[in-house]
Write a structure and sequence with these properties.
Blueprint (H helix, E strand, L loop, with lengths): L14 H54 L7 E5 L3 E6 L2 E6 L21 E5 L7 H4 L9 E3 L24 E6 L23 E10 L9 E5 L3 E6 L4 E6 L18 E6 L2 E9 L3 H4 L1 E10 L2 E10 L5
Antiparallel strand pairs: 1-2, 2-9, 3-8, 4-7, 5-8, 6-7, 9-10, 10-11, 12-13, 13-14
């Protein structure tokens, strides 16, 4: 017997079916191109703008923070149109008010600061608070004192007669009784009388310093080393420079401070500018900063004004 063979007819795509498939794919492709691709591009653009804004905000916040704690009259600005700017300042580590006769039981040569003549020790009214200073190993030469710099001479001050204590002068900080009774830590009341009898800090310098003029509010500032921000439009960078000595030569957009350590704050800079007014720093000193960042066709510009909180 022979096996029976079943013949199955073969079917393919008809021309009409192929046309319909092509039409459907065309509609899907058109929809993808019209709706999906622009949405993806818009999402990427939003991400790029958000990244640029975040980068610009971080840069401005960092500069603003240093500016707000800067030593009065220590801000130096160099700006070249189309090239960028350099902003230098001396941040304060801590500060206080030196003793005046008749205030808070202040009296005697070892408590009062002699202005215009050599002095190596005096009290401040109250206590310093920054652990970087109060917790230092004394005598410390890492910090310097500034008193009465109304003319912005801190960058050129030198020697034993200047608004800035001489480089290498050791500073020793101790807690002393401000006139009250009993034992207590710095900044705590002795328990007898008003806060004028609180314990306070006493400063001793390893070498006598002559501060030529008093501060209007009897301010004494503790400073570290300068900080500079340089915006270079050509390189597209904003860089922070630190850990370098005080110098009479100010940095420029094309000349960073000598011997400084650098850290990139942000890149993709397309433009930047700065304006400052420090002639009336006690009342309305400020720095106006503007930076523009560009990436992948997206661009943002942020402007910030930083008020100087310190006063002479």
């Amino acid at each position: 017997m022979q096996a029976a063979h079943v013949i199955v007819p073969r079917r393919g795509f008809t021309l009409i079916e192929m046309v319909f498939v092509i039409l459907i794919l065309g509609v899907i492709g058109t929809s993808f191109g019209v709706f999906v691709i622009p949405a993806v591009r818009a999402s990427r653009a939003i991400e790029q703008r958000a990244a640029l804004i975040d980068s610009a905000e971080i840069a401005l916040r960092r500069m603003t923070r240093d500016i707000r704690i800067a030593l009065p009259n220590s801000i130096r600005v160099s700006s070249i149109a189309g090239t960028g700017f350099a902003v230098e300042m001396i941040p304060t580590i801590d500060g206080g008010r030196f003793c005046a006769s008749g205030e808070a039981n202040c009296s005697g040569a070892n408590q009062l600061l002699a202005i215009g003549s050599p002095d190596s020790d005096f009290d401040v009214v109250g206590c310093f608070r920054n652990p970087a200073f109060t917790g230092a190993a004394f005598p410390s030469t890492a910090f310097r004192l500034v008193i009465g710099d109304a003319a912005g001479t801190v960058y050129t001050a030198a020697g034993a007669s200047a608004v800035l204590s001489a480089a290498g002068t050791g500073i020793t900080l101790t807690t002393v009784n401000g006139g009250g009774a009993g034992a207590g830590a710095c900044g705590t009341s002795s328990g007898v009388g008003p806060p004028a009898t609180s314990y306070r800090h006493h400063i001793n310098l390893s070498a006598a310093q002559t501060f030529p003029q008093p501060s209007g509010r009897r301010r004494v500032y503790v400073i570290d080393r300068p900080v500079a921000y340089i915006c270079n439009i050509t390189a597209g960078t904003l860089t922070r420079y630190y850990s370098y000595p005080i110098s009479s030569v100010a940095p420029t957009p094309t000349s960073p401070p000598a011997g400084a350590t650098s850290a990139l704050v942000t890149d993709k800079i397309s433009d930047c500018s700065v304006a400052t007014s420090t002639s009336t720093v006690q009342a309305n000193g400020f720095v106006k900063l503007s930076i523009s960042l560009t990436n992948g066709g997206e661009a943002v510009q942020l402007v910030s004004e930083a008020q100087l909180d310190n006063s002479i």
